[in-house]
Amino acid sequence: MTGKVLLLSGSPRLEGNTAQILGECAEVLEREGIATETVLLAEMHIQSCTACGLCSGGECALDDGLNDIIAKIREADGFIVGTPVYFGTARGDVLSALQRIGMVSMASDGFLSRKVGGPIVVARRGGHTATLQELWMFFLINDMIVPGSTYWNMVFGRTPGEALDDEEGMQTVRRFAENVAFLIRKLQ
Predict the structure, then answer these.
(1) What whole-number distance in Å separates Cα of residue 172 and Cα of residue 169?
(2) How far apart are CA 169 and CA 54, in angstroms?
(3) Which of 25, 91, 137, 159 would you label with 14, given CA atoms 20 to 30 Å apart?
């Protein structure tokens, strides 16, 4: 394996659509020779950033497990975030995690800079593009490299497993994963 990608699942359901789609993404990455690890926010209780300014040492002052995720991101070549869409936006704990990860990176050594990745969003009917734009801002302001795909990284589905039936959405996610692997190999 050449390279590693950390996938962050923002679904509250361990077997929900977001987790299943990230599983498919991980399969593609591994088939392309990239090691993967998936972290499930459903197993954590992520707090919001308090803007305390104590993260300049490379870790967040809040003790809720996010520093373990930060350590995994530091070791990875890529970072992909998957989230369900709630009321036209990413889940609150996903945004809290990303804001704190970004603060630590910016306040310390810029560990996110030039990592390859991007967001994948899942919703029943709408809110995909607003959520993608919201998450793209995290990746771009942190100097990360976000590859494209055949469409935007969004998949439609409500009940667990339904999103896997969105052929175009899954084709887009698979191509995105291939492009992440391609870029990681090119950058090494």
Answers:
(1) 5
(2) 40
(3) 137
> What is the CATH classification number for the domain harbouring 133?
3.40.50.360
Burial class (CB in 10 A: 0-12, 13-18, 19+), 15: exposed
| Nearest to 181, CA basis, from 111, 113, 117, 112 | 117
What are 38-86's pLDDT values in tens digits? 999 999 999 999 999 999 999 999 999 999 999 999 999 999 999 999 9
If you search the block for the tokens 């490379």, which residue do you land on? 58
pLDDT digits (tens, 9 = 90+) for 90-127: 999 999 999 999 999 999 999 999 999 999 999 999 99
CA 103 to chain centre: 16
Give the chain's domain count.
Answer: 1
Structure tokens at 72: 């995994």
Give the residue numbers spanning the domain of 152: 4-187
What is the rounded distance in angstroms from the CA atom of residue 37 to the CA atom of residue 26? Answer: 8
